[in-house]
Please model this.
Amino acid sequence: MIITLEQKKKLKRPFNLENYGTFRKNFSWSKAKKEVSWFKKGHLNAGFNSLDKNVLNGKANKKALIWQSDLGKREVYTFKDLYQKSNQAANFLIKEGLKPTDKVFFFLPRTPLLYYSFLAVVRAGGVAGTLFPAFNTQALLERLQNSQAKIVITSKELRPRLLKIKSQLPQLKKIIVQEEMEEALKKESTAFQCFLTKALDPAFMLYTSATGHTPVCGIVIPHQAILQQHLSAKWVLDLKENDLYWCTSDPGWVTGVVYQIMSPWSLGITQAVFEGRFSAQKWLSFLKKEKITVWYTAPTALRLIQQEINPNEADFPHLRHICSVGEALDPATLDWTLKSFGAPAHDTWWQTETGAMMITNFPVLPIKPGSMGKPLPGVEAAIVDDQGKELEPKQEGHLVFKPDWPAKMTQVWGNSKRYQIYFKKGWYFSGDKAYQDEEGYFFFLGRADEIIKTSGERISPVEVEASLMTHKNVVEAAVIGKPDKIRGQIIKAFLILKKPIKNQEKFFEEIKRHVKDKLAGHAYPREIVIVKKLPKNQSGKILRRTLR
Model:
């Protein structure tokens, strides 16, 4: 089944089915630079593009953010509101010691302060970063040690986790509590001049489990990434002047930064944010109540919502466009979204390392169920063998890209060797296996390594294993991703114990709790098996392939 153009609403767009190829052929990033605002030649600040230019271009009084707490509290901010609060935050942080290129990390739930203060750091020439609120001490320590962050902004509830590890973080000068910062900002000036950053200066830094075997990698994204982020939001999310947009990703991950903080506001779009954790009924209510028109979410969320809604009873007249990210979108869920919402979900493929969308299902092109879609204009993708030789259609191989797109990471922080691993034979190797059909559509097959994707989140088995082995009764641990209809994958752990246990059920719950406390609330094994030995190769490496 192919979802045709006739099933999509006709809207004015820069290219369509007939001229997509011509548009790609004639496109160049250098010509596209006029899409973003430069201070002067060579100077570009991504934060200026996401905030200042809206105030300067007559959108000061337009709604920028509609925020709702889990308990139903609702706040509305115009671009002028965010601009002034961001200015106050920038002035405050500079007084607290922030200097250009300093790293400031946010360990917060989705509160308004996170959004305008993140932009304040970028606009002040600092490097902003985010930490997922579910992270516990082990995950926090790894990331803050590696990044050498100077300031962390957190909440009263989350601060105790940071205090437990503060003595191991000599570079961390300040832990600022949100509630105290909000009070202090009232005394700050609402005037601030953006720092003159250059296109390749670092704008933000996010951690990923990466495509290798290191637990975490700090991926640095430059200011010039805003160009690709802006255009991909325009072309793929199809954001328009009167849209009300909702991206459900947490800013602790790259989607929540790029397509919730940076690119929608670079287009001057009004967006909605729901602070609470996932709830099918609350999300559906939010969609309907706020009259969301464009929705960017994860296939896992769609599958979970599917259990709560009858397609014949769905009524979302305002919702016109849906995109998904985080894992492969299965054909059944694609079909269900069309029946339930009157709009098909458009799968998008990209990574933290790429900084923006790379292969997508464009709203102007037919959707082939199971396909990642086609490359963004300005992005050259291919399927190659181990030697970097391009393969014929339908042949399985490595998904690679010519390393010349503007949103590409500039470094893996403190690990140049890891950075170089991505690039060989003239290509950027994504670490994914895929194939391309005769019409240029790409199809994802799976990871070339062992990174686990559960509920749209990437988790390193190395991190989970390390956490498991801190338990007093665990000698050795191996972790794999097990296919799951709802979550894509679940974490399954194989354990070798020091001594036998009497109550297996109680012990398994203890193990799960242990990983949640040490690592993160979403990174625990949902299935556990006790074994006497683990399969290994001659060098002692665990064969996770055999376990799978």
About this structure: The chain has two domains: 5-436, 452-547. The longest helix spans residues 79-95.
